[in-house]
């Protein structure tokens, strides 16, 4: 008898379910499929690039045992990096805006990361500036998800191939919220190589919306991994439609996800009004339990 293979926690990253909606109506004979990235061990799509950035940096000799790692994060990358750093044995300093949810902060600390906060007004731009300043002062090494090609590479090697396999090559549209843009860049590259006709749709917050995990970046802070040519269409998502769809997903589909995931489905349904007989895939990037303290799930 062959001895069983017992995986490590790192081996459990990826190969997440792709599920169809059952009760929310999808128009025009379209199929809408949701990639449940909250099923990753640390609870989000960011598990993929977090481990990838550390492992590939090790292979290149950019980091070594005992090095202190630094990263600016709005939440999910920080949690995922805290898990990956714990797996690999690296000290980790995470810098994030103070107005992020308490669940996110507590999860980072639970994995052993040191949390450094900047003000809500400084935001992610201020967090990124502080991370680079700490690196220049010799405190540690910044992985920099915003300019690190290992971020989209993780999705090129895992998320994209999974979607192609799970849809048997029938995917016609891919919809993803855009934060660092690593997910949409890596998946777009892979899917376009398989079928150039696959349409890639990115989501950004409408003016005035504050949706955790997705951004409308000032030009000076636009992630350098972003290539506009890899995105066919960009949709603006309002705060209201993202939060309403997030609550509908939980109450009508049993999919407990965060605000940007609600925006992702809302954008996919808006797209479904414009096309017919399409197979539309959207990313459910994390779980809803890390937003409970914000009140977004409270009865309306």
TrEMBL record:
It catalyses: O-acetyl-L-serine + hydrogen sulfide = L-cysteine + acetate. The modification N6-(pyridoxal phosphate)lysine is found at residue 46. It comes from the Bacteria. Keywords: Amino-acid biosynthesis, Cysteine biosynthesis, Pyridoxal phosphate, Transferase. InterPro entries: Cys_synth (IPR005856), Cys_Synth/Cystath_Beta-Synth (IPR050214), CysM (IPR005858), P-phosphate_BS (IPR001216), TrpB-like_PALP (IPR001926), TrpB-like_PALP_sf (IPR036052). Its EC number is 2.5.1.47. Residues 11-286 form the Tryptophan synthase beta chain-like PALP domain. PANTHER family: CYSTATHIONINE BETA-SYNTHASE. This is Cysteine synthase. It comes from Nitrincola lacisaponensis.
């Amino acid at each position: 008898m062959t001895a069983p293979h017992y995986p490590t926690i790192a081996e459990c990253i990826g190969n997440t379910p792709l599920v169809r909606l059952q009760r929310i109506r999808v128009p025009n004979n379209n199929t809408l499929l949701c990639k449940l990235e909250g099923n990753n061990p640390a609870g989000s799509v960011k598990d993929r690039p977090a481990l990838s950035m550390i492992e590939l940096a090790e292979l290149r000799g950019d980091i070594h045992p005992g090095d202190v790692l630094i990263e600016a994060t709005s939440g999910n990358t920080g949690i995922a990096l805290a898990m990956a750093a714990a797996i690999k044995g690296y000290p980790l300093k995470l810098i994030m805006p103070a107005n992020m949810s308490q669940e996110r902060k507590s999860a980072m600390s639970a994995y052993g990361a040191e949390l450094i906060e900047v003000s809500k007004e400084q935001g992610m731009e201020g967090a990124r500036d502080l991370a680079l300043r700490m690196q220049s002062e010799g405190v540690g090494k910044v992985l920099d998800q915003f300019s690190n090609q290992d971020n989209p590479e993780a999705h090129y090697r895992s998320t994209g191939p999974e979607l192609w396999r799970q849809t048997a090559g029938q995917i016609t549209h891919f919809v993803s919220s855009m934060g660092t843009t690593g997910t949409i860049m890596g998946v777009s590259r892979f899917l376009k190589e398989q079928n150039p006709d696959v349409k890639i749709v990115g989501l950004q917050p409408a003016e005035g919306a504050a949706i955790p995990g997705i951004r409308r970046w000032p030009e000076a802070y636009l992630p350098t991994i972003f290539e506009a040519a890899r995105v066919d269409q960009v949709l603006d998502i309002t705060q209201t439609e993202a939060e309403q769809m997030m609550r509908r997903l939980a109450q009508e589909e049993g999919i407990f996800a965060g605000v940007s995931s609600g925006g992702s489905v809302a954008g996919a349904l808006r797209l479904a009004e414009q096309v017919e007989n399409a197979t539309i895939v959207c990313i459910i990037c994390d779980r809803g339990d890390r937003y409970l303290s914000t009140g977004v799930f409270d009865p309306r």
